[in-house]
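Quick one: structure tokens for this chain, please?
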Amino acid sequence: MEKFKQILDGLLDDAANLGKRLLVALVVFIIGKILIKWVIKLLTKGKFAQKNEKTVVTVLSHFISVGLYLVLAITIVGILGVNTASIITVLASAGVAIGLALQGALSNIAGGIMILILRPFRVGDYVEISDKSGTVTDVGIFYTVLTTADNKVITIPNGSVMADNIVNYSAKDTRRVDLVFNVAYGTDVEKVKSILLDEAAKHELVLKDPEPFARLTNHADSSIDFTLRVWAANKDYWQVNFDLLESVNKRFEEEGIEIPFNQLDVRVVNGK
């Protein structure tokens, strides 16, 4: 009888301890959940959300939420008396196995996060990535989507995006237009330069500062080449480019300046 009483007392003590642990775990869970919601709300509604794009805020809040809930779960398990070291070891092993299995996907996720944080480009920018050019229409966790000038859609994995060079043509407000014009040998150099600068000065979309530049820059096989460089607003780049090509060509015709074709001189020597 005495032995039975000891066993019963032991069971009651264990139940009481378990009850206390469950109560503490429940309190920690409630408080932890409230704190996590507060942190996420602060992240998504506070100054950080106002200063950053919605996609950035959404992705970061999701990852932070998962991380905080994972920490809360491990804490509760530890309060209940389970060895947390073994749990962390199992989670680490599982993480390594999952990481190896999903190496490509994780690389794209990491690339997506880096794009959202560093923002080498934004939706609407015209960029060149991996020898592909187009307007950025979407930046997701796994892929970046470009739309080309002829309306083709290019989907590039974010891992490849961050591993390659990125040329952002929309990052600055102004852009330089570089044009090369070929004229025949014997043409008056100063006259050609004067025409190029005059056509640039007449175009209303060409900026005055920096000043347009026109110089003889190359002696080719069949021509002498002149480079015209002007600056324009980014949005006016292509209009200025095409307008100057047309106006200079028309001006060359009016001034009688010859645009040469490729030439080859052949000498025939009569042998004996």
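Helices lie at 2-45, 47-51, 54-79, 84-101, 103-118, 158-163, 189-202, 237-255.
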